[in-house]
Design goal:
The protein is of the alpha/beta class. It is built from six helices and eight strands; from the N terminus they run αβαβαβαβαβββαβ. 35% of the residues are buried.
Length: 208
């Protein structure tokens, strides 16, 4: 199906993003483009939760493991929505990948975050890794290495809020909230209420 470009919609999105940035210093300043607002983000999370339930036989033997920073609250939100939809309690864990990255020396000093194994562990389970943005794939590769130290899952899947492309490793997500084509000069900024005090996804940088 063809897509009709509407310049008025672009202008409205840019204006909304600029107004939001002015109202909240946590949001990046112009040039930026608002991709998802709070309502959009909530609907995306609901859709991913439904998809996981459908593909996991109602989350049977399934655990969610969030990758800090924003993957952790996203995993908890997904678990809450799955509970609301099907009445199932899906265990949630947190997996810090910092020391497992192959580009650690190039990324500078970063504080370590606590790894929390989901109740019941990961051995023999379907583990759904949860992250905010899928980019080069190196964070996910590090997560797979870190997960190995916790146990041997039956299978591992990946859920991401945004896939921005530019993969450097042969990794793809099983559940994607939104595909956003980006230039290498652009950044995808995910803002979550638990971390940033606001829900939004903003594309910043590049050319307008």
């Amino acid at each position: 199906m063809g897509h009709v470009h509407n310049a008025a919609n672009d202008t409205a999105s840019e204006t909304a993003a600029e107004a939001a940035a002015a109202a909240d210093p946590a949001l990046p300043r112009s040039p930026n483009r608002l991709i998802l607002d709070a309502g959009d983000l909530g609907r995306v999370i609901d859709r991913i939760a439904h998809q996981i339930l459908e593909k996991s036989d109602g989350a049977r033997d399934t655990v969610l493991v969030g990758i800090p920073t924003r993957g952790a609250p996203l995993a908890r939100r997904l678990a809450a929505r799955m509970r609301a939809f099907e009445g199932v309690d899906v265990p949630v864990g947190v997996l810090d990948t910092t020391l497992y990255r192959d580009d650690l020396r190039m990324r500078g000093v970063r504080a370590l975050e606590e790894t929390t194994e989901p109740p019941g562990g990961v051995a023999g389970k379907l583990v759904v890794l949860v992250d905010d943005v899928l980019y080069s794939g190196r964070t996910v590769r590090a997560a797979l290495d870190a997960l190995r130290d916790l146990g041997r899952p039956r299978a591992v899947q990946l859920a991401v809020l945004v896939d921005r492309g530019h993969r450097e490793l042969p990794i793809r997500a099983d559940y994607v909230g939104k595909n956003i084509p980006t230039a290498l000069t652009e950044q995808v900024k995910v803002l979550l209420d638990e971390v940033d005090g606001r829900d939004a996804v903003v594309l910043q940088g590049g050319t307008q």
